[in-house]
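worker-03 picked up job from queue 'complexes'. Input manifest follows; two sequence lines, order preserved.
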Amino acid sequence: MPPDAPRSGRYSVFAIAREALRQHSGWNRAWASPEPRGRYKVIVVGAGGHGLATAYYLGKNFGITDVAVLEKGWLGGGNTGRNTTIIRSNYLQDPSAALYEKARSLYETLSQDLNYNIMFSPRGLIMLAQTEHEVRGYRRTVHANHLQGVATEWIEPARVKELVPIINLDGPRYPVLGGLYQARGGTARHDAVAWGYARACSDMGMHIIQNCEVQGVETEGGQVRAVSTSKGRIGCEKLAIVVAGHSSQLAEMAGFRLPIESVALQALVSEPIKPCMDVVVMANTVHGYMSQSDKGEMVIGGGTDGFNNFTQRGSWQHVEETVRALIETFPMISRLKMLRQWGGIVDMTGDRSPILSATPVGGIFVNCGWGTGGFKAIPGSGWAMAELVAKGTPGPLAAEFGLNRFREGRFIDESVAAGVAH
Amino acid sequence: MLTLTCPYCGVEAEETELHPGGEAHLKRVGPDGSDEDFEAYLFARKNPKGVHFERWRHAYGCGKWFLAARCTASLQVFGTYKAQTPHPPAEIVDAIRAHRPDWQPDWTPEQAQAESAAE
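worker-03 finished. Artifact:
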């Protein structure tokens, strides 16, 4: 434990009682903010959920704690703090189901593992089938999920109505014909996931360095040597690039290209209302999905921009499109006011599946391409990425997600499962 | 919301009238291309944070494909031009330079000339 790391102490009912007796004077910062050392064994670029989870499992599963996590902005301020917090693993292809189900199952006990309440709420998730094609597609997914050991089921419209009383089943254009239901899907507090991992990493002695932008990657003989940052040069043995929307820029600094395009994805929340919907509902045909936060806001997401975009804004016509579609399915939300709207930059691959891979530069590994649906995958992604970085070769979870799949034509086509949803 | 002027019909169209079509000026790889060439042609799209050239279709207008020069970091539009050009024309390059003096094209004038002659 370096001297600059204040231990936050274990959170428990006894800690609350103790602090209550001394006017809460004993709570330390959850993680330290040290100045960077000159060299680390592993540098992780990006202190979002995926980067912090990678660092955490490097320490927990492989005992590697000489790790720095560099973040150009603030911790969890990118897509980790901008998504709609949905967790599910009802994917079609075997490699995806394995990775996302690993993540979902880790979420089940993550609060206990991290000693930090991430508010995992397995409230159930329905993907509505609103066309005959979707009915067939989702029935196929249910069969695939049964073979993969992912607990999902096909439910009829009456059951959808029972689970979501506010739904209108006979929409004029897209009636609800049934749904793909994952009872242990749900949501979690996205900030807390980043904060919980950061606290655990800091407790292991890792350095989390915010406001530290990577500006260049130094290589020698095809091997990574260091990164130059806004806080100076930092040497490393291995470099993990986990930066979502700016993956192409980091890859360019290191001298290779990624099959990634960056686009804006946006979301919005309504004003808070009384509890009215205790499941997550996704309607992929009309490009909208909705859940209710613990604060009572209806959290709504939609489609991406169709063009490359690095502005974290989004555009009004997407808000209109998404909301126009959702009020047909949920008439009661038509009079709600929008509270706020925001955007994030997502990294899209050609087959809508992520990339967890070694790269043409020795010692550099990438974890990117999560596109519109990365939050749900954070623990599994970190787990698989840590193994890749520690051993240099991917384990079973990451094996199919290498960069070479684009050259070899071994795509993991998830355009149906991930086309909209997040 | 983006507003682009269709170079064919001259209409100033907003994003909802248009359909985006991805990176412009892609070169089709022939049957003798290597695996690397095909991979690059199919997947390795340019993804610059800055000046970018891309295809758009005036979907709810004249229906034609055209090309646009745009900044992905600020959403500024430098201009639009017809699709039948192997490289952006000089006036587009000038328009970009006027706002981004440091910007360098990733093709040479000789390339542009040779390919225009071959058209």
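worker-03 released lock.
Chain B is about 25% helix and 25% strand.
Strands of chain B lie at 3-5, 12-14, 19-23, 51-57, 65-71, 77-82.
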